[in-house]
Write a structure and sequence with these properties.
- The complex is a heterotrimer of chains A (about 220), B (about 120) and C (about 450).
- Chain A has about 220 residues and is mostly helical.
- Chain A folds into 2 domains: about 35 residues; about 170 residues, no CATH class.
- In chain A, about 75% of the residues lie in helices and about 0% in strands.
- Chain A starts with a helix and ends with a helix.
- Helix content of chain B is about 75%, strand content about 0%.
- In chain B, α2 packs antiparallel against α3 and α3 packs antiparallel against α4.
- Chain B is elongated, with a radius of gyration of 19 Å.
- Chain C has about 450 residues and is mainly α.
- Chain C contains 18 helices and 2 strands.
- The chains are: A mainly alpha (about 220), B mainly alpha (about 120), C mainly alpha (about 450).
- Chains in contact: A-B, A-C, B-C.
- Chains A and B meet through α1, α3, β1, α4 and α5 of A and α1, α2, β1 and α4 of B.
Chain lengths: ~220, ~120, ~450
C-alpha cells in the first residue's frame, strides 16, 4: 500500500481508538468489572496457596491451554510439510574452545533449571511453556555453537514423533482421567489429592517436554531450509 | 484530555498497535511486514495484561505472606496463551518466507511483482 | 442437556492428528479418513440431540462464567459439513503428488478440522479465539502444501491478512473483557453496557476481523491466490469450510444489529464484485474462488435481513463449493495441467457432477443452493429493500454465465493437440464428487423441513 495512504488510514483509526481508550474504566481502579466479577471469585474461593495463573491455565481454563499446545503442534507440522526439500545443512564453523567449554559446562545446569521451572510452576512463577522455552533455547544454543547436527543428536530419535505431541496427548489423558474421576472432562479430582497432583504434574511435564521438542524442531527445520 | 491521561497505559498500547499496522501496510519488505505483525501482537498482549492491573496490587500468587489486593489473574493467563499462538504463527511465517526467497530470490514486494 | 460427546467432537480429530506423525506413510490417509468418519458420526449424533434441546458442557466441571462452556446449537450443526468435506477430501487427495496425504499433511487436515469443531462449539470468546488460531494456522499450512510456484507467497499473504484479522479480534475480546469482566458469551451479552465508544469499537473490531477472515470485498484480495494455488482437495476445505468460519464468528458477535446497514451494503458490493471478477477469469479454480467471494457477499447481506436464510446458505454452500472444487481437481488431475479444455469429453461423469454443482451454486430449484438464497431474497423484500433482492438475482445471472461458460470449455472445446485421450477420473475422486453433488441436490429437495429445523 502507498505509504501516504497507509499513514492517513492509520491516523484516521487513531482518533476513535484513543477516544475509546479514554472512555474505558479507569486503569488500575479496583472497582471495575475486571476485578469485581469472575476474577474475584477465583481469588476468594480458589486455591488457598500457589500460583493462581497456573491454576487458571490448567484448571479453570484448561481447554484454552489445550488449544494453545495444539496451536504450536500444528505450527510445527505445517513447517515440517514446508521443509521437505531440505538441502544438507552447512557444517558448523569450529567453535572457539572457550565458548565450547562453557556451553558444555552450563548445558546440564540449564537443563536442570528448565525442568525445575516446569515443575515448580504450580507454586511460583513458571510452568510448562516457560520451561519449554528454556529447554528449547538450550538446544538452539547447542545448535549455534556445535552445529545443527549436534543439536539434532540431543533430541530423542525414535520417540520424537510421540514426544513432540506430548502436550496435547497429556491434556487428552488428563481429560479422560478427570472425566472418569469427576464426571467432567478436564476436571481435577480435589477429593483425591495424590491423583490431583499427579495429573497437574503430568500435564505440566507434557507441555514442557512437548513444547521444548517443538521449539527445537522448529529451529532445526528453519536452519535446514 | 484527563480521562486519556488516566488511561495512558491503554493509549500507549493503541499507539504501538497502530505503529505495527502502519509497518504491515506500508513497508515494502515482507520480513518487515512480519515484524510489524509482531509489534501489533505485542501491543494487544500489553493491552490485555495491563487491563488486569490494580493500584498497589500484588502478583496473584497466593500464600500465607501474600496480601490483597491481587492483580486479576485471568489476563495473565490469556496473554500466556496468546504469546504461544504468536510464536507459532511467526515460525510458520518465517518458513514461508524462506520458501518465497528460494523461489523468487527476493522479499521486496516491487521485485516480487516483476518476477511473479 | 449435557453429554461427553460434545468435548469428544473436538478431541477426536485433534487426537487423531497428533498421532498421525507416528505412523508410516501408507497408513496415514486411511487413518485420517477413519478418524474423520468417526467425527462425522459424533457430529450427526449431536445434531440429532439438538431436535430436543441445546447441548451445553462445562469443561472441568466449572459452571459458566467461571469455566469454559461448550455449546452445540443451530450454528454448530456446521460441524456436519466440516467433518463430511474434510473426510472426503482425504481419499480424494491420495492420487495427487502433492504432500496432502503424507503423515504431516493428514495431521494438518485433522488438527484443522478439530480447530473448526472447537470454533463452532465454543461458547467463550477466548476459546473461540484460540480455536480460530488452530484452524487458521492449519489453513496457512494447507495452502503451502501446493508445489506450484508462488504458493509460498500466496500462503504468506493469507497469513499476513489472517493474522491481522486475528489480532483485531483478540483486541476486541480484550475490550469486551475490560467492559464486562467476563469471557462467557451469554454472560458478556447480559453484562454489556448500553452504549459508549469502547463497546462500539469492540463490536466493530469483531465484525472487521471476521469480515476479513470471510474475505468480503474489498478485503478479499488474499483469497483468489490462496484458494486457486492450493491443492484441489485443500481448496474444497478452504472455500467450503474455512471462510465460513468468519460468518459463524459474525453470527456469534454480540450487538451485531447495530451494524446491519453496513453489512447489507458490504454484502451487496461483495456479491456483485465477486460475480463480475468471476466472469473474467480464464482459470477454473480462480473462477470458483471469486464465486466464493460472491456467495459470501450474499450471506453477509443475508445476516442483516434473514439470519436463518444466511445460516441455511452457509451449510449448503459448503457442500456445493466443495463438490465443485473437487470436480475441478479431477479435471486438472487428468489434464496434467491447468489447461483443462476438452477434458470433459472423456470424463462424462465428472462433467455432469460439475454441471449439477454449478446449477446448485447458481441457486436453481430444487437444489440446495436455492433454499437459502430464496429465503434471503424474501427477507430483503419483507424488509422493503427490493433493490437488494434485484441485486441478488442479478448476481445469480452473472454466476450462471460463468458456470455455463466453463461447462462449455470443459465439455465442447477440443483438447490441446499435445494431450492424448484422457479417461474418467479414478474412483477415489469420483465417489467424493458424487456424494457431495448428490447432497447438494438432496438437501434442496428436503429444503422446507431443513430450513424449519435450522430456524427453530
Amino acid at each position: 500500500m502507498n505509504p501516504r495512504l497507509a499513514a492517513a488510514f492509520v491516523t484516521g483509526l487513531a482518533v476513535p481508538m484513543l477516544a475509546a481508550m479514554a472512555a474505558l474504566p479507569r486503569h488500575g481502579s479496583p472497582d471495575q468489572p475486571i476485578h469485581t466479577h469472575v476474577a474475584r471469585e477465583y481469588i476468594e474461593s480458589g486455591p488457598e496457596t500457589g500460583n493462581l495463573v497456573t491454576a487458571i491455565l490448567l484448571d479453570y481454563r484448561g481447554m484454552d491451554t489445550f488449544g494453545e499446545v495444539v496451536v504450536i503442534f500444528v505450527g510445527l507440522v505445517a513447517v515440517l510439510v514446508l521443509a521437505r526439500h531440505r538441502e544438507p545443512a552447512l557444517p558448523a564453523a569450529s567453535p572457539s574452545p572457550i565458548v565450547a567449554f562453557i556451553v558444555r559446562l552450563v548445558t546440564p545446569f540449564i537443563a536442570l533449571f528448565g525442568f525445575h521451572v516446569i515443575l515448580s510452576g504450580l507454586e511460583v512463577p513458571g510452568g510448562g511453556l516457560q520451561g519449554a522455552a528454556i529447554l528449547g533455547g538450550l538446544v538452539i544454543l547447542n545448535g549455534f555453537v556445535f552445529g545443527p547436527q549436534h543439536a539434532r543428536s540431543l533430541l530423542p530419535g525414535r520417540l520424537l514423533p510421540w514426544l513432540q505431541g506430548a502436550g496435547p496427548l497429556a491434556f487428552l489423558a488428563a481429560g479422560i482421567v478427570g472425566g472418569i474421576a469427576t464426571g467432567f472432562a478436564l476436571g481435577y479430582p480435589t477429593h483425591l489429592p495424590l491423583l490431583h497432583e499427579a495429573m497437574l504434574m503430568g500435564v505440566e511435564l507434557g507441555i514442557g517436554i512437548g513444547g521444548a521438542l517443538i521449539f527445537s524442531r522448529l529451529y532445526l527445520a528453519l536452519e535446514d531450509a | 484530555m484527563t480521562p486519556l491521561l488516566e488511561n495512558l497505559d491503554y493509549a500507549a498500547t493503541v499507539v504501538l498497535l497502530l505503529i505495527g499496522l502502519w509497518t504491515v501496510l506500508a513497508d515494502s519488505n515482507l520480513l518487515k511486514k512480519l515484524m510489524g505483525l509482531n509489534i501489533m501482537e505485542t501491543a494487544v498482549f500489553a493491552f490485555i495484561v495491563t487491563s488486569g492491573m490494580i493500584e498497589g496490587g500484588a502478583a496473584p500468587i497466593l500464600g500465607p505472606d501474600a496480601a490483597p489486593p491481587f492483580m486479576a489473574p485471568i489476563p495473565h493467563a490469556l496473554v500466556l496463551t496468546g504469546i504461544v499462538v504468536a510464536v507459532s504463527t511467526t515460525a510458520l511465517a518465517l518458513a514461508l518466507l524462506l520458501r518465497v526467497h528460494r523461489e523468487f530470490g527476493t522479499l521486496e514486494i516491487d521485485e516480487l511483482r516483476k518476477r511473479w | 442437556m449435557t453429554t461427553h460427546w460434545l468435548p469428544a467432537l473436538v478431541a477426536i480429530p485433534i487426537a487423531g492428528g497428533v498421532l498421525v506423525p507416528t505412523m508410516s506413510r501408507r497408513w496415514a490417509p486411511a487413518w485420517g479418513f477413519g478418524v474423520l468418519i468417526a467425527t462425522l458420526g459424533v457430529a450427526l449424533f449431536l445434531t440429532g440431540l439438538l431436535r430436543e434441546d441445546t447441548v451445553s458442557y462445562a469443561v472441568g466441571g466449572w459452571p459458566p462464567p467461571y469455566g469454559i462452556e461448550l455449546r452445540f446449537d443451530v450454528l454448530s450443526t456446521f460441524a456436519v459439513p466440516i467433518a463430511l468435506v474434510a473426510a472426503l477430501a482425504v481419499p480424494f487427495a491420495t492420487h495427487s503428488n502433492e504432500p496432502v496425504t503424507t503423515p504431516e499433511g493428514v495431521a494438518v487436515i485433522l488438527v484443522g478440522t478439530g480447530g473448526m469443531m472447537g470454533f463452532v462449539v465454543a461458547a467463550d470468546f477466548f476459546t473461540l479465539f484460540v480455536f480460530l488460531e488452530v484452524l487458521s494456522i492449519s489453513a496457512y499450512g494447507m495452502v503451502a502444501m501446493s508445489e506450484e510456484r508462488g504458493a509460498g507467497l500466496a500462503a504468506f499473504r493469507y497469513l499476513l491478512m489472517g493474522t491481522v484479522a486475528s489480532i483485531v479480534i483478540l483486541l476486541s475480546v480484550g475490550l469486551l473483557y475490560t467492559l464486562t469482566g467476563s469471557l462467557n458469551m451469554a454472560d458478556v451479552g447480559q453484562r454489556l453496557p448500553d452504549g459508549g465508544l469502547p463497546l462500539h469499537l469492540a463490536i466493530g473490531g469483531l465484525a472487521a476481523g471476521f469480515l476479513l477472515k470471510a474475505a468480503v470485498f474489498p478485503l478479499h484480495v488474499w483469497l483468489p491466490d490462496a484458494h486457486a494455488t492450493a491443492p484441489s482437495a485443500v481448496s474444497a476445505i478452504l472455500s467450503g469450510l474455512i471462510v465460513k468460519m468468519g460468518i459463524i464468528g459474525l453470527l456469534r458477535t454480540p450487538g451485531l444489529e447495530h451494524l446491519h446497514e453496513l453489512l447489507i451494503w458490504v454484502g451487496a458490493a461483495s456479491l456483485l464484485a465477486g460475480a463480475l471478477f468471476a466472469l473474467v477469469q480464464d482459470d477454473l479454480k480462480r473462477m470458483l474462488a471469486y464465486s466464493t467471494v460472491s456467495n459470501i457477499g450474499l450471506v453477509v447481506l443475508g445476516l442483516a435481513v434473514d439470519r436463518t436464510g444466511a445460516t441455511v446458505h452457509i451449510l449448503n454452500h459448503a457442500i456445493i463449493k466443495a463438490s465443485l472444487f473437487l470436480a475441478a481437481g479431477a479435471f486438472i488431475h487428468r489434464a496434467g495441467s491447468r489447461r483443462i479444455e476438452g477434458t470433459g469429453r472423456s470424463m462424462p461423469l465428472t462433467t455432469s457432477a460439475f454441471a449439477v454443482g454449478g446449477i446448485a451454486a447458481i441457486g436453481i430449484p430444487p437444489t440446495g443452493g436455492f433454499t437459502g438464497k430464496w429465503m434471503i431474497v424474501l427477507g430483503a423484500l419483507e424488509a422493503g429493500r427490493w433493490g437488494f433482492a434485484v441485486m441478488i438475482l442479478l448476481g445469480a445471472v452473472i454466476l450462471a454465465l460463468c458456470y455455463a461458460r466453463f461447462v462449455v470449455v470443459v465439455a465442447f472445446r477440443p483438447s490441446p493437440a499435445d494431450r492424448e485421450g484422457t479417461s474418467e477420473a479414478p474412483l477415489v475422486m469420483l465417489v467424493p464428487i458424487f456424494v457431495l453433488a448428490a447432497l447438494s441436490v438432496g438437501v434442496g429437495i428436503i429444503g422446507g423441513p431443513f430450513a424449519a429445523f435450522v430456524g427453530k
